[in-house]
Automatic annotation (TrEMBL), chain B:
Record Gene3D superfamilies: Folate-binding superfamily (3.30.2270.10)
GO BP, sorted A to Z: tetrahydrofolate metabolic process
Cross-referenced Pfam families: SoxD
An annotated Gene Ontology molecular function: sarcosine oxidase activity
Name the record gives this protein: Sarcosine oxidase subunit delta
NCBIfam families: soxD
Species for this entry: Hansschlegelia plantiphila
Transmembrane segments: none
Length: 417, 97
């Protein structure tokens, strides 16, 4: 791997930037690997990276049916925060946030992680109670989160309309200052480059179509559009398509796949300093470094694999955005798109073993897994390398839906991201 | 936005409806006799297919009735709608690869 540095930049500037080259290889699949990862999103690529760097396991392939980062990783609104209510979730997302804080240096790749602060708006008495409960719970876990009055919210985010006569009055907010955003594509590319440099094969345009099992029922490899590939262990990290991949091994999942949409405006000069979320009105907004307003909506109500959603969902979101930030009423939207998010009944992910030997799964991140990418890859690599969960993902079993030990962030927060 | 054919009222826009998820999930007949795994299956596990999906809808801002629908989750097209308690005319076996 050629390291990026000031010296390499200067050299390329002199040479007319002709020498950068490809950042990862495009190898043909080998007949067998120690570990095969199904799904080349951020989570799958991060898993491969940490298998190589932390556990020294480099005979690894990442199989991606399209192009890496072309799933939800490349479609999300990149909000990163760790102020979740329950201890299990707080530890998981805080583990990720700590890794984000050093990620560009670790990968020698600028993931443009920006700790600009995420402000969650409270609009009613229930929000106030719920957010304050979060603030106190987070502090007990050593996670920063603070309560702001409406005036303090306005000072932190000047475009906000806090007048009391608006349709969604702002009565306060919870602010995590260490939270923020990152460049989604760069996360996939940075992990891919780092994993490839250590020997991991990243194989694009290779769809997994079956899981082969031996007489004892254990998984032995995957059928793909590029032939059979033997695997010591298989890690399924296929987000919205997880139910389909697991069905290939006869494992039924507690998952439903919903469309989730986002949209961006035309680019403008810097007008928006932070990330603002409003769960009550289903809207969240930030400004990318290119200048576009990045706006996310809630899920559609039906399951779908179409990667589209209804226009009324985005319209509803824009209604709310215009009400809270009147200065944006004349902005024009450039693009909108959808991703397919895999949602669990308790809105917490599933990371660990499955009833099929050698088959592991990392899924159920639903509407909010981008923020977890480094942490998720780190603990899943541990699980794949050792066959046992890392203490941080130990509670996030598939079996919790049988035992009843749910991690019910849905009921706790009704929070999308 | 989807156009949904309520068996009672005819075609109406999706915003009049509430989706109730997978249809034909029967509650265990003798709850005391089934173990946790079967309860988990009943409460939480879903088919979530890419292809034909039997699902429940309610015409919330209309007649208020629950009914069932067969929809292709790859194209979002409705194949048929039918009344609660009935089975679809179309075979449900079709799932896209
Ligand atoms: C519109 C939108 C906004 C979002 N906003 C946020 C946000 O602000 N903050 C946040 O934290 N999260 C957000 N999320 C959620 C976040 O994007 C996901 O949780 C996260 O990116 C999941 O990463 P992943 O690597 O698991 O999945 P993906 O990036 O989807 O990767 C899975 C990969 O598996 C591949 N695959 C599937 N089936 C097969 C197969 N059979 N064979 C081979 N490959 C296969 C797919 O092609 C895909 O590339 C948002 C999601 C969407 C859609
Ligand atoms: Zn009706």
């Amino acid at each position: 791997m050629r390291r990026f540095s000031l010296a390499s930049l200067l050299k390329e500037a002199v040479d007319g930037h002709q020498g950068w080259g490809r950042q990862w290889r495009a190898p043909d699949p080998k007949p067998a690997y120690d570990v095969v990862i199904v799904g080349g999103g951020g989570h799958g690529l991060a898993t491969a990276y940490y298998l190589a760097t932390v556990h020294g396991i480099t005979n690894v392939a990442v199989l991606e049916k399209g192009w890496i980062g072309g799933g939800n990783t490349g479609r999300n609104t990149t909000i990163i925060r760790s102020n979740y209510l329950y201890d299990e979730s707080a530890h998981l997302y805080e583990h990720a946030l700590k890794l984000w804080e050093g990620l560009s240096q670790e990968l020698n790749y600028n993931v443009m992680f920006s700790q600009r602060g995420v402000l969650m708006l409270a609009h009613n008495a229930h929000d106030v109670q719920s957010f304050k409960r979060h603030v106190y719970a987070n502090r007990l876990n050593g996670i920063d989160n603070e309560w702001l009055s409406a005036e303090e919210c306005k000072a932190f985010c000047p475009p906000l309309d806090i007048s009391p006569d608006v349709r969604y009055p702002v009565v306060g907010g919870a602010l995590q200052r260490r939270a923020g955003t990152a460049r989604h594509d760069a996360v996939a590319w940075g992990y891919a480059r780092g994993a490839d440099a250590r020997g991991v094969d990243i194989i694009q345009n290779c769809e997994v179509t079956g899981v082969r099992r031996d007489a004892s029922g254990a998984a032995t490899g995957v059928e793909t559009t590029r032939g059979f590939i033997r695997a010591g262990r298989i890690g399924v990290v296929a987000a919205g398509n997880t139910s389909r991949v697991m069905a290939m091994a006869d494992v039924r999942m507690p998952l439903e796949s919903y469309p989730l949409q986002a949209l961006v405006s035309e680019p403008v000069k810097p007008v928006f300093p932070c990330v603002v979320m409003s769960n009550a009105v289903h809207a969240y907004i930030s400004q990318s470094d290119k200048g576009e307003l990045v706006i996310g909506a809630g899920t559609d109500q039906y399951t779908s694999y179409s990667q589209q959603g209804g226009l009324h969902i985005t319209t509803h979101t824009l209604d709310a955005i215009c009400e809270i930030f009147p200065q944006f009423t004349r902005m024009r939207m450039l693009r909108s798109w959808g991703g397919i998010v895999d949602v669990t009944p308790d809105r917490s992910p599933i990371i660990g073993r499955t009833p099929v030997d050698n088959l592991f799964v990392n899924c159920g991140w639903g509407t909010g897994g981008f923020k977890a990418t480094p942490g998720s890859g780190h603990v899943f690599a541990h699980t794949l390398a050792t066959g046992q969960p890392h203490p941080i993902n130990a509670p996030f079993t598939l079996d919790r839906f049988r035992t009843g030990r749910l991690i019910d962030e849905a009921a706790a927060a009704a929070v999308a991201h | 936005m989807l156009l949904i054919d309520c068996p009672f009222c005819g075609k109406r826009p999706e915003v009049e409806f509430h989706c109730g998820g997978e249809a034909h999930i029967a509650r265990p007949a003798d709850p005391a006799q089934v173990d946790d795994a079967i309860w988990a299956e009943h409460l939480f596990v879903r088919k979530n297919p890419r292809g034909l999906h039997a699902e429940r809808w309610r015409h919330l801002h209309g007649c208020g009735q629950w009914f069932n629908a067969l929809r292709d989750t790859y194209t979002d097209r409705f194949v048929e709608t039918y009344k609660a308690g009935e089975q679809p005319k179309h075979p449900l076996t079709e799932t896209r690869a």
